[in-house]
What we know:
Helix 2 (about 35-65) packs antiparallel against helix 3 (about 70-110). Helix content is about 85%, strand content about 0%. It contains eleven helices and no strands. It is globular. By secondary structure, it is mainly alpha-helical. The protein has helices at about 1-30, 35-65, 70-110, 110-115, 120-155, 165-185, 190-215, 220-230, 235-245, 250-255, 265-290. The chain has one domain.
Amino acid sequence: MGNIVTTLRANIIPSIDQVLTIAGLTIREAWRRRFLAVALGLGAACVALFGVGVHFARLDVLARGAGYNLFTDSAFNMMVMAGLYAESFLGIMAGVLIAVPAMAGKIASHTLDVLAVKPFRRAPLVAGKWLGLACMLTLYVGTPAAGTIGVTWAISGHVPPHPVEGAALMALEAIVLMSITLFAGTRLSVVATGALSLGLYGLAFIGGWLEQIGAFTRNDALVDIGIVTSFLVPSEATWKKAAHLMQPTVVNDFGFTPFAVANPPSAAMVIYTIIYVLAMVVAAVYALERRDL
């Protein structure tokens, strides 16, 4: 028993240390390249612009003497969802943009050759890069989302339902595309990796909207197409789950806004998405282990 514990400590603890080291290096590199500074600065600008829009919308409501009712509450909710939708799209683009150079770019420039030797094995190398990128994406998506929800609450008093769960799912959506890009980068060139990731996002986006149209029109064929694409690339399904959680039931039931979700994914789909992300990481490790650098 003592030998087993010693063996586990000798293998697992150094691997964890290596993962954390690579994650720290990945974050520091992004900071050095000004990605985090630029991203958070632009995020703050987007939140400020959104706040100006909410402010004038509130003034219009007061000027009309309408007061706050179901209609105005739904209108403010639609504004929040529009802001969050834009931020989720930017999060996906950021996930692809930072993951392409992190793997495919490093392989093309032979920078990875220096790290993919002892004492760093390739598995901790991939896991560390993924962890560092996931932390940055969570910050990149979560901060503007919190700002958008907070500004709306401060100005109008409206808070969407389940904001924490919704923001977490938005971050997961970006992490899905980042994980796909990281895996693709182990086998493809920089350009091909970016094209594949964006193409898969487009596939999921179209499939998601076809499913929504099918749900509203009761067209089972369109719904089935959307479900299949959700299993292939679950990014859009993750956004739909977030959108469903952050909108009142009446909005989703009657389709008051373009963001209403008539056929929301289940909790099992969220679990599937997490497993999908882990599978992408394992696949990236497997592919890199068998690639000559």
